[in-house]
Write a structure and sequence with these properties.
The chain is α+β, with helices and mostly antiparallel strands and 399 residues long. The chain is 24% helix and 20% strand. It is built from eight helices and 17 strands. The strands form six sheets. Strands 1-2-3-4-6-5 form a six-stranded antiparallel sheet, with helices on one face. A three-stranded antiparallel sheet has the order 7-9-10. A two-stranded antiparallel sheet has the order 8-11. Helix 5 packs antiparallel against helix 6, helix 5 runs antiparallel to helix 8 and helix 6 packs antiparallel against helix 7. The longest helix is centred in the middle third of the chain and has 20 residues. The protein is globular, with a radius of gyration of 29 Å. It starts with a helix and ends with a strand. The C terminus is likely disordered.
Length: 399
C-alpha cells in the first residue's frame, strides 16, 4: 500500500540526495508523490523543479515497472513531453546521514499495513521541469475553445506521434497528465508506458489506466497506439464541452472537431485515426482558417446593429478540413440613376409592431448599395455527429 496525501506531506522540508529540498506537495496517489522543490548547491538555489518520489515496490514485477518509468522519462526527448533533468535512487535506512528524513519516513510508513520496505528499501525519484498547471486543473475553472483548444490537441497529438514512432504506448493519457509548461502543452507521467518492441499490439492481463479514458479494446487487455488515440478523442470532447462523449449533445461539439473526434472514437481500433492523422488535421485546420468576407461600409455611413432577439437556429455547415476555394466575386449591379430631388429630411429610425406585439426595429440607412443574405455555400443539411464513438449502430460505453 502507498502512503496517502496527508502522509506524504510529512516529507515537506526534507532534502533528497543532498540537493533537492521538497518545498510543497503537489499531488499524491498510487504512483507516489510529486513535490515542488528547490535544487540547492552550497545553500544557493539554482532552480525550481518538480521531484517525483516513487515508494519501494513490493514485487519484482512492480520494481521492473518503476525502472521502466525512469528509463522512459530520461530518454524521451520531444518539445511536448515533460523534460526529465535527473533520476536516481535514495536509500532510506537508519545509516543514512539525513536522520531527520529517516525519522519522517518511519513516521510515514508506520500507518501502512504490511509495510516492511522502509528499513532496507529505497525511493526512486525523478527530477523534472516544473509545470504551471495541468489541463485538469484548468478545466475546473474554464473550458478550452478556439485556437487554445486546437493548440492543445495538436501538441498532444505531436507527442503521441513521437511516442508511437518509438513503439511506446502511454496508456494513461488524461487531463491530469497534460501539463502547461512555459506556454506549451506537454504530456507527462510515464508510469504506465508500454513498449511494443516490433509488435503492433500486445495482450496483457495487467490492465492499467483511467477507466473514463480507456478504449474498448483496452478493457479486454489489448494494448496498441490506438488506445492513446481513443483517450485523445475523449479528452478533446471533455476539454471543449465539459461532457464525456456518451453524454454529449450533438450541438455541443464545435464543428471543426467533429471529424477528429469521430476518427479517434471509432470502435474498431484498426480503423481508428493515428496520431499523425490527428496532427495533420489540426495543422490543416489552422492553415485553412480564414476570416469570413465582410462587406465594407460606405464612407461616412453609420449603420446601427440590432442584437438578435432569438438564437440562430439555421443549419450549420458540415466541417471540411480542406481549404475552401476563394469566394467568387460577383459583378456589381449598375447604379440606379435617380433625378435630382430636394434635400432629404434627416434619417430617422422607427419601430413597427408585428402580430402578437412583436417589435420590429426599422433602421434608416444612408443611400448607397449593400449586400444581405447568406454567403455562397452556406446552408444545407447538418452533417450530424450522431452518437460519438458509434460504428455499426452500437454506441461505445466509456466506463
Amino acid at each position: 500500500m502507498n502512503p496517502n496525501f496527508s502522509q506524504f506531506k510529512l516529507l515537506e522540508g526534507q532534502v533528497i540526495d543532498g540537493k533537492y529540498r521538497l518545498i510543497k506537495l503537489l499531488g499524491a496517489g498510487g504512483f507516489g508523490a510529486v513535490f515542488q522543490a528547490d535544487e540547492v548547491v552550497r545553500d544557493r538555489i539554482l532552480r525550481q523543479v518538480a521531484v517525483k518520489l516513487i515508494p519501494p515496490a513490493e514485487t519484482a514485477a512492480a520494481q521492473a515497472k518503476q525502472l521502466n518509468e525512469l528509463y522512459a522519462a530520461v530518454n524521451l526527448d520531444h518539445p511536448h513531453i515533460i523534460r526529465c533533468f535527473a533520476a536516481g535512487e535514495f536509500v532510506a535506512n537508519s545509516n543514512n546521514p539525513q536522520k531527520n528524513f529517516w525519522n519522517k519516513l518511519q513516521e510515514l510508513f508506520s500507518s501502512i499495513p504490511d509495510s516492511n520496505q522502509v528499513g532496507n528499501g529505497s525511493f526512486l525519484y525523478l527530477v523534472m521541469e516544473l509545470a504551471d498547471y495541468s489541463l485538469d486543473s484548468h478545466l475546473q475553472d474554464d473550458l478550452l475553445s478556439g485556437q487554445r483548444l486546437y493548440q492543445m490537441i495538436a501538441q498532444v497529438a505531436s507527442a503521441l506521434n513521437y511516442l508511437h514512432a518509438n513503439r511506446l504506448v502511454h496508456q494513461d493519457l488524461k487531463p491530469g497528465n497534460v501539463l502547461w509548461v512555459r506556454n506549451v502543452w506537454k504530456v507527462s507521467d510515464f508510469g504506465t508506458v508500454r513498449n511494443l518492441d516490433t509488435r503492433s499490439y500486445v495482450q496483457t492481463v495487467h490492465i492499467a489506466g483511467t477507466p473514463l479514458y480507456m478504449s474498448p479494446e483496452a478493457l479486454q487487455g489489448l494494448v496498441a497506439p490506438a488506445w492513446d488515440m481513443w483517450s485523445l478523442g475523449v479528452m478533446s470532447v471533455v476539454a471543449a464541452t465539459g461532457d464525456v462523449p456518451e453524454a454529449l449533445s450533438e450541438n455541443s461539439l464545435p464543428l471543426e472537431l467533429k471529424l477528429l473526434v469521430q476518427g479517434c472514437l471509432l470502435q474498431d481500433w484498426r480503423k481508428r485515426w493515428t496520431a499523425k492523422q490527428a496532427l495533420d488535421a489540426m495543422v490543416t485546420l489552422k492553415h485553412s482558417a480564414s476570416p469570413v468576407p465582410q462587406v465594407q461600409p460606405q464612407p461616412q455611413a453609420s449603420v446601427q446593429r440590432i442584437p438578435p432577439t432569438a438564437p440562430n437556429t439555421a443549419p450549420t455547415v458540415p466541417v471540411n478540413l480542406r481549404p475552401s476555394p476563394a469566394p467568387q466575386s460577383k459583378a456589381p449591379k449598375p447604379p440606379i440613376v435617380t433625378p435630382p430631388s430636394p434635400a432629404p429630411a434627416p434619417h430617422q429610425n422607427y419601430q413597427e409592431l408585428l402580430p402578437r406585439k412583436v417589435p420590429l426595429e426599422m433602421i434608416a440607412i444612408p443611400a448607397g448599395s449593400f449586400l444581405m443574405g447568406s454567403l455562397d455555400g452556406e446552408g444545407g443539411d447538418r452533417a450530424g455527429l450522431g452518437r460519438l464513438g458509434v460504428e455499426g449502430g452500437e454506441a461505445n460505453k466509456v466506463s
